[in-house]
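Most newcomers find our protein records easier to grasp once they have seen one. Each record describes a single protein and holds just a pair of labelled lines. A learned vocabulary of local backbone shapes supplies the integers on the structure line. Nothing more is needed to start thinking about how sequence determines fold. The record below serves as our worked example for the rest of this section.
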Amino acid sequence: MFKFTLGRLFTGITVVLFVATLTFLLLRVLPGGPFDTEKKLPPQVLKNIQAKYNLDKPLWEQYLGYMWNLAKGDFGPSYKYIDRNVNDILKETFPVSLKLGIIGLLVATALGIGLGVISAAKPRGLLDLLTVTCATALVSIPSFVVGAVLIWALSIKLGWLPAALWRGSEYMVLPALTLAAGPCAYIARLTRASMLEVFEAHFVKAARAKGLSEVKVITKHILRNALIPVVTVLGPISAYLVTGSFVVEHIFAIPGMGRFFVLAVTNRDYPLIMGITIVYTVVLVLANFLVDVLYVLLDPRIKFERTGIS
């Protein structure tokens, strides 16, 4: 386990450095700059601003300076939010995105696995048909459409829930449902397909031959083995949900990282874009590591090796 963790730590740091380097270079290569406006700034003013943020230095010097500060945990000052550091913005926004993401993950996982089990228990039945149809529709529909429909139905027409903002538990329901809709549908379809494959396995037939009830066969034998493919996709899904959906946070006016990322891209705020991108990458690496650990818990036949899982 120690060797596995050490190997994954090295791999994770390499991935974070690669993503940071690539993002840094892409931001500099793209046309335009963070201080380009419709009304051009006086040359001397623009020169002073660039000097303040070290943008007048060669690219390699900017890169080394940024990576050195990054190694110390300093993401630098924001270009558009005057007198605010990216670290401070992340401290304010990440807990919001984390809370929303965890709620969305729990909803997507619980509902997705539950619907998948119900659908697979009686294939080609009415519930199976409804589940597959709804799951296919939700996977195909963009999140901003789902959010708009939920706002119209549950907020405007019925008045059950607030339409936007982030002021209490009732404000979390609509964005969490919107965020979880697509992943929930995907998990449901994957759970159903995986369970239908396991249904035909020899150990399942042996369990039925022993006289076990169908509930025990499904919960103790089929579901545990069928969850391995589901766990595989939980890594990227968890990272996506925990860091917050950019569109969902923007629609519901939630002060999370996703909303700030949209504004940062619009404003060409290099340090803020870099900071949020790196945080997203770290969460993705951690989520994939936890998925590898879950493999062993679900299937004892899987063992840790130095650099991976066998």
Q: What stands out?
A: The chain has a mean pLDDT of 82. The two ends are 13 Å apart (CA to CA).
